[in-house]
Amino acid sequence: MPSPPIGGSVHPGFEPVRDAFIANFTRDDADAELGAALAVYHRGHCVVDLWGGHANTARDQEWARDTLINVWSATKGVVALAVAILVDRGQISYTDSVGKHWPEFAANGKADITVAQMMSHQAGLNGFVEPTTVADLENWTTVTTRLAAQAPFWPPGTLASYHALTYGFLAGELIRRITGQKVGAFVRDVITAPLGAELYIGLPPALEWRVAEIVGPAESPVANPDLAEVPARALTNPRPDPTSPTQRSWRAAEIPAANGQAAAQGLGRIYGALANGGELDGAKIITPSGIDQLRTKRHPGPDQLLGPRQWAAGVNFDVAPVFGPHAQTFGHTGWGGAFGCANVEHSVGIGYVMNRMGSRLVGNPRGATLCAAIFDCLG
What we know:
Elements: E1 6-10, H1 15-23, E2 35-42, E3 45-53, E4 69-70, H2 74-88, H3 98-101, H4 115-119, H5 140-149, H6 166-179, H7 183-195, E5 199-200, H8 229-236, H9 248-252, E6 261-262, H10 264-274, E7 279-280, E8 283-284, H11 288-294, E9 316-317, E10 330-333, E11 339-343, E12 348-354, H12 365-378
Antiparallel strand pairs: 1-3, 2-3, 2-12, 4-6, 5-6, 7-8, 9-10, 10-11, 11-12
Helix pairs in contact: 1-12, 2-6, 2-7, 2-11, 5-6
């Protein structure tokens, strides 16, 4: 097969990152890239801006710098930042009860659940009691009403188990109750528009043509029959479908745990700002103190679904290592491999997207290879 088209540039000293990026297209396994992009910001400057391959399986549409793709749970990290901005502004505290801002949520034994517990997957609401379909996820009121009414599956605060699909509705409704805005609009107004970062929760119709064709994983971790009862609730009602992002109804909806449509530069600029004191190109979205609250450890792990995992307030620390060699690097991955992460101490933010999903629920060897090369170049 001929070499894929590769575009973009790297600053001097980051040539090994380009080599690692290109090598991902020539892998001899199921993780070989179809199309992908990578953006790295260091001390507020873009030092890696690469894209390559194809946006569709027919390979007649090349990946562009602004190609968009569903980044699954990498959306969660951006929603966590939106809540952190409210904390930073003094509109909410992580120690508040969720019910203080969302009274209906306090029903059925949930009155004492704190914002910190909800943001760190300790709320006991990792699935639905009522039978729920993927189509139901496109109806905000239906989903948030169900979550507010049901009892937690475990005593909140006693363990963490990944809220794979419910997390975004919980955090998003909290944002709506405080600001009066839907989560997609709030993220746009306080994060993506100021930073010039392309990530959409609720994709405008005019941008449909820029979305790449997503390719599901060779093996799906959501079909694991060996999961215990508690973590399995996150993946069985409903069962996530890797083909959902091919539907306009999915992309148009607001499913803030799973349906962000992003370019690598979008994630890169967001995490580049987090790595740079909350500022990028003159736009300040959060203070260093707010960033520290976002990345304060809220649960030491393990996570019942994901295993070794240290949760902060909606982002996790690197324990795999998925994000490179430093344990203080934080961010969020998406099903199949997309991710955004930041390291404050090294002033580096990274965004990576691709359209061929890997088989792991969390992390992917392609991204791990890229992060290793990036931090190696930083010394």
